[in-house]
Design a protein that fits this description.
By secondary structure, the chain is an alpha+beta fold. It has 16 helices and 20 strands. The protein has helices at about 25-35, 100-105, 115-130, 135-140, 150-160, 185-195, 220-225, 240-245, 280-290, 295-300, 305-310, 315-320, 325-335, 435-440, 445-460, 470-490, and strands at about 5-10, 15-20, 55-60, 65-70, 85, 205, 210-215, 230-235, 255, 265-270, 270-275, 335-340, 345-350, 355, 360, 365-375, 380-385, 400-405, 415-425, 430. Strands 2-1-5-3-4 form a five-stranded mixed sheet. A five-stranded antiparallel sheet has the order 10-11-16-12-13. A four-stranded mixed sheet has the order 6-7-9-8, covered by helices on one side.
Length: about 500
Amino acid sequence: MSPPRELRFILDGRLVRVADAAPQTTLLEYLRDTLGRTGTKEGCAEGDCGACTVVVAELEDESLRWRPVNACIRLLPTVDGKALFTVESLKSADGALHPVQQALVDCHGSQCGFCTPGFAMSLFALYKAATPVSRARVDDALSGNLCRCTGYRPIIAAAERMHALPPASGWRAPGNGGDARPANGEERALADELAGLRRHSTLELAAGSQRYFAPASVGELARLCLAHPGARLVAGATDVGLWVTKQHRDLGTVIHTGAVRELRRVETSADELVIGAAVILSDAFAAIGRDYPSLAELWSRFGSVPIRNSGTLGGNVANGSPIGDSMPVLLALGATLELRRGEARRSLPLDAFYLGYQKSALAVGEFLEAIRIPRPGASTEVRAYKISKRFDQDISAVCVCFRLRREGSGADARVVDLAIGCGGVAATPKRARRCEEVLRGRRWDEAAIAAGAAALERDFQPISDMRASAEYRTAVLKNLLRRFHVETTRPEVATRAVEYAAP
């Protein structure tokens, strides 16, 4: 039986089949140039401005999940088997506006109008997810949308009003507390259609020098990685997408991991949390946050909601960027990677995975299968800090995570174990080994912190770049150690880690 060679997705209740598009075609290109859906805009072409935001509905555990994503850096074949909604989808068949649109009209939420479709789609996803919505939830939902007319106040007002309006015909009222289960006939029909689109074999596409494989099982993924050792593995393409849109690179052969069922699982045991490499960041962060709630703010500052809905934890780890924000946390928590090549598997501590800048321990034909994270002990204290020029949608100058276990109480408490994961201060994400060694076994006091800060200067020799100078990074790293000490010894002065640090 020959493999399927056309992708399929649902748009406004209609099945769309695509057999002739190049695998590197972006979703935005296809929407605008082929389907004429010009409501979806191109602003930055790198997933920052949100003008291209669309909503993808996907069937997970028999429930519909509605997620905003950036169409500009999303490869078209990755929406195979999903339902797609653009701003043109919102208006009802009888011409009535969706409550999101009506609220934007009522609250004067559009100025020049260029960014408005993206805002509408982010609000639509929020509308489908939960009611009522808090101001914090609105701010998070809009973190990936930029308004150059500085019109945020009326848009936020529209977000707060949209649930008070009657549902448009053909759209159900939103659930409560994130309930995403199909609630009316139209959505049950959509869920049934998506169930019928599930693939049980590899999707293959080709055009010119470009080839695309989307295996449905981890065994098939392993076979493809051996058969195509030079292939580019892609999950959400939040990084690789920029190679296409900004550098116009030909990716050659691409293997998509997002359809591999085994890689999208999250499993919890008494001792550890196991996150499949293709679990999207939104779900991975939620799972980690249940064990480590103190990380909530760092996760909310990782990219934006659309980025977290496309990018995967495995992709962020395997990419190994020195300024990736998940790796300092995973290093501090003592994460272990499960790697696979063919039928052979091996475990490797994350701190042994990075060999140098953009160089990892992955062998040819090997891929990341899962990330194992130890669950916290009763006395574990974890905090993470991100320093960047902006609060939202910015790359870290310094990101650091501390995991501390003390024995004893008060001034006599001693450090039993300490792990410090750092980003932005070396060619790879890295542990502060000298600082950890200096502090381990000592009393957790000012003298120890001074010694630890001095050790940090020997741990790292950061570079100067557009985000920060080397001197600034070193000073910030030492000050964050002091801050962690204050927050763990004097909780009455602990504050939210809101940083607007300017190098």
